[in-house]
DNA sequence: TTGAAAGCGCTAACAG
DNA sequence: CTGTTAGCGCTTTCAA
């Protein structure tokens, strides 16, 4: 009974301690690389633990050391798009180097679910959070976020926290100028709602682009909706079916782009002769189109690296400025833009 | 000092107990819906806890109740493809209904990483695991898996555990018959390695299809490689560049299909006049192709539902047969297959 | 440098 | 039905 211990995993610190003839404190210290233990003893403990196949109970560890890096929460609205799945994968990879496990929470953009998940995550004593807030974050959720080491991703909730975002404003401006330079004067914009921080950023970019191109908002029909492929499809159809047909369609958002691309194809428009099209996301999605689509390419890996690094710095206690950290997207011309039809 | 308690979260069971004038045991029982507490008291406790904003420390809970459903591990080789990301999302959603959090681990198909992650997961006392094993699972990993409630997904490692898979064998047979019926006699197959359980299943389907079609393996060049889009691209090029050109290309695997589709497009082959093509995965990926590609559609949501349900049943202690649970994929004809060129 | 002992916050015997 | 008392497995004072 006493000898068996650890019904489940097996060896525990007390076993090691007993078998080595030292105290559990010493074992713990040795295992955690405390410098307050004679190096050779520490070494011996570690070797023995290894050989004995010891693996620490992370729950106990995290519970005891009221602070620990055992878990980090990753809270996102969706995961079925690379903007999230690719970043999630990369973050999990980076965090696991530190021995940190990532708890994945999908809110489905539902503020209530989000709030519940955040509570649960905090109840699991996560060391920190990487969060992509839902469109309408509740006051209560913000309160929770304020009191935890948070790094925002893709979207900002308005709290004072560092956040990693793609520099949408700048690239959308570039897109508009690109189109205007080709001669377009009736540009349609399909994007995410302004309540979404990235939606707002893209709209700023749009406005700035139009201004710099000497165009007004009257030159630009816009359609804003939550980022789903479905919305992209219907939104694009709506814009393309307007009385004053646009000669170019600019889509601000990855999922919207998926749907929009399908809508354009279904409409049977020849690119770029009948319509110039710029989409958002990963060019490999659009590689099968003919011609391949000119795409705003967002560096998901870089976003992930930044997010993970910022969080780790916060957890290390290093000061991290609570500001946006922007990653520059790249406008990759693949042939779906050209002069407007005569 | 005594009154403050809970440096971090705030209220704990002892606070509630003290403030309500009952014991912590009673509080715990009430909160966990034990029937061994007077209903009205239980009610009062719950209401008070709610009002007090109590939220249980899941670490403590899980540590104490040596069994708990706090966490479940989700171990997959990749997540940047819907075969995994979509299933992960859906599983996270389903598990969260039970209050279970999902720890996401990406192995990158590396057996060593996989083993380490499994150990760490078990060290976190996960209640169970949903695992998509790497191509070459180590003996040690299998040992770990054998001693935990595991449900396999997409791929089997050979241990006695329930697993949820798409019925690749059957659908690949159907594909071959479809092509043969159109008149094809030189079919190329691009698939995953036979070391992968799904690779083996697809090969079985291939062989059976050829046989039923009265063809031999000499009618069918095959190329097997790890499932990445890159490999799909090079593999397809290789098959298409062979001396005896195939008239049809069948791709068994989602990522391979992505690459293969690009290769076919790059080769400038007209579908289905010059080549018949069947791919694997989500048809929306291939919707932009002209014509859209005939696709083997795998029901990711259904896979996820099954996997989550099986795991939950196992955790409930219900007996679950350690066998494959197959989900039928669907062959959706979208126009990229037709009679072979004359 | 090491050990004894007190928790971390919760659940679960065991009594009453 | 309810309370007392041990733990879960680890870390971390506090002394020695």
TrEMBL record, chains A, B:
One Pfam assignment: LacI
> Sorted alphabetically, which InterPro entries does this protein's record hold?
HTH_LacI, LacI/GalR-like_sensor, Lambda_DNA-bd_dom_sf, Peripla_BP_I
Q: Which residues are in the HTH lacI-type domain?
A: 11-65
Q: Which UniProt keywords apply?
A: DNA-binding, Transcription, Transcription regulation
Stretches assigned to coiled coil = none
**What GO molecular function annotation could you give as one example from this UniProt entry?**
DNA binding
User: So which residues are the signal peptide here?
Assistant: none
State the protein's name: LacI family DNA-binding transcriptional regulator
What is the species listed in this Swiss-Prot or TrEMBL entry? Pseudonocardia eucalypti
């Amino acid at each position: 009974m006493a000898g068996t211990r650890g019904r489940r995993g097996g060896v525990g610190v007390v076993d090691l301690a007993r078998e080595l003839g030292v105290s559990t404190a010493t074992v713990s210290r040795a295992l955690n690389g405390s410098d307050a233990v004679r190096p050779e003893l520490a070494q011996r403990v570690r070797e023995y633990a290894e050989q004995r196949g010891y693996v620490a109970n992370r729950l106990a560890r995290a519970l005891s050391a009221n602070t620990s890096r055992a878990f980090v929460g990753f809270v996102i609205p969706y995961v079925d798009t690379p903007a999230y799945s690719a970043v999630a994968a990369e973050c999990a990879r980076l965090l696991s180097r530190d021995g940190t496990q990532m708890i994945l929470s999908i809110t489905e953009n539902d503020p209530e679910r989000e709030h519940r998940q955040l509570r649960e995550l905090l109840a699991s004593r996560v060391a920190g959070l990487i969060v992509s807030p839902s469109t309408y974050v509740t006051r209560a959720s913000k309160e929770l976020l304020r009191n935890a080491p948070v790094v925002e991703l893709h979207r900002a909730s308005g709290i004072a926290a560092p956040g990693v975002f793609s520099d949408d404003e700048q690239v959308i401006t570039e897109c508009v100028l690109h189109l205007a330079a080709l001669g377009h004067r009736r540009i349609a914009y399909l994007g995410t709602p302004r309540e979404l921080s990235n939606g707002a950023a893209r709209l700023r970019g749009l406005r700035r682009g139009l201004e710099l191109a000497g165009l007004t908002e009257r030159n630009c029909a816009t359609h804003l909706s939550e980022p789903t492929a479905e919305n992209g499809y219907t939104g694009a159809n709506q814009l393309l079916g307007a009385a004053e047909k646009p000669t170019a369609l600019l889509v601000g958002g990855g999922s919207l782009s998926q749907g929009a691309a399908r809508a354009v194809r279904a409409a049977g428009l020849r690119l770029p002769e009948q319509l110039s099209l710029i989409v958002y996301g990963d060019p490999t999605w659009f590689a099968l189109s003919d011609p391949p689509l000119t795409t705003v390419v967002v560096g998901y890996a870089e976003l992930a690296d930044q997010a993970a690094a910022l969080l780790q710095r916060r957890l290390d206690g290093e000061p991290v400025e609570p500001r946006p950290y922007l990653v520059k997207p790249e406008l990759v011309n693949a042939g779906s833009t050209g002069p407007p039809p005569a």
